[in-house]
Automatic annotation (TrEMBL):
UniProt cross-references to Gene3D superfamilies, sorted A to Z: 3.40.630.30
InterPro entries linked: Acyl_CoA_acyltransferase, GNAT_N_AcTrfase_prd
PANTHER family named among the record's database cross-references: GCN5-RELATED N-ACETYLTRANSFERASE, N-ACETYLTRANSFERASE DOMAIN-CONTAINING PROTEIN
N-terminal signal peptide: none
The name this protein goes by in its record: Putative GNAT superfamily acetyltransferase
GO molecular function terms noted in the UniProt entry: transferase activity
Keywords: Transferase
């Protein structure tokens, strides 16, 4: 399976025009600076990246020519689990839309399979529609757990004042990359975007076993211009999604526009 995974990576890296490889210790300073630039704070400093690299866990970067433009780092889970938790990944200069993020993730997958790792987990902000679509549509990963205020109050330039709700993603690394991801369809809405960009909550029809939840298409821009409204969206999504999760509902599809389809299991 790792040969197939490496083939997936090569196609993605050639399409994005990058090479992804494990970082050398002296490159970790630049990697940490990129992460600080992206987050407006330091999610992972150079000493920690160097220590992780030296310990043999995953610390890699995407290079365009000789320039480091993306960073991805993760650590191993419990020995018996054969898992890795991918803690941070980012691409500088707005290049993520050009496939660099995909190339990094597929390199991490192939590397993990070569090292006996069968699954990978990570968290993402469920309000960031493009990340939800990437995880489910592009990679075929599952959304396993809703984590309320997972990191507590964060003080970086991205998350300050927003709460830190996350969804835990689980990716079985020997699964095939989806060619035709499932579409959310037209299930009844329980959360949508109003005319004034405010969240609009609706009651699900009695007996419904599928509902749709829509989030803003670009919450990052919304945070920059109206942090209070973005925080309102955080609570609205939590109220729409977390209780259903506790009752056995799970997201089974995500649209390109930030529409989640949740079904009761």
């Amino acid at each position: 399976m790792s040969l197939h995974a490496w083939s997936d990576y090569v196609r993605a890296s050639e399409s994005a025009g990058v090479t992804v490889r494990n970082l050398r210790p002296q490159e970790c300073v630049t990697a940490a600076a990129i992460l600080t630039e992206l987050w407006g704070g330091s999610p992972m400093g150079a000493p920690l990246l160097v220590a992780m690299e030296h310990a043999g866990t995953y610390v890699a970067g995407a290079f365009r020519a000789d320039e480091l433009i993306g960073v991805c780092a993760g650590f191993f889970g419990p020995p018996d689990a054969r898992s890795m938790h991918s803690h941070v990944a980012g691409v500088k200069g707005g290049r993520a839309s050009k496939g660099v993020g995909t190339a990094m993730k597929l390199h991490q997958r192939a590397w993990c399979l070569d090292h006996g790792v069968a699954e990978m987990t990570w968290t993402f902000d469920p309000l960031v529609a493009r990340n939800a679509a990437f995880n489910v549509r592009r990679l075929g990963a599952s959304l396993d757990e809703y984590l309320v205020d997972f990191y507590g109050q964060m003080t970086d330039g991205v998350n300050t004042g927003q709460g830190s709700d996350r969804i835990l993603v689980r990716w079985h690394l020997d699964s095939l990359i989806p060619r035709q991801p499932r579409e959310p369809g037209d299930a009844p809405l329980v959360l949508s975007v109003g005319a004034d960009y405010r969240p609009v909550a609706m009651r699900a029809p009695e007996g419904a076993d599928a509902v749709a939840i829509v989030v803003p298409s670009d919450v990052e821009s919304l945070r920059a211009r109206d942090g209070a409204l973005a925080a309102e969206w955080r609570l609205a999504l939590r109220e729409a999604m977390a209780p259903r999760w506790d009752e056995g509902w799970r997201p089974v599809a995500v649209g390109r526009d930030g529409r989640y389809l949740m079904e009761k299991r």
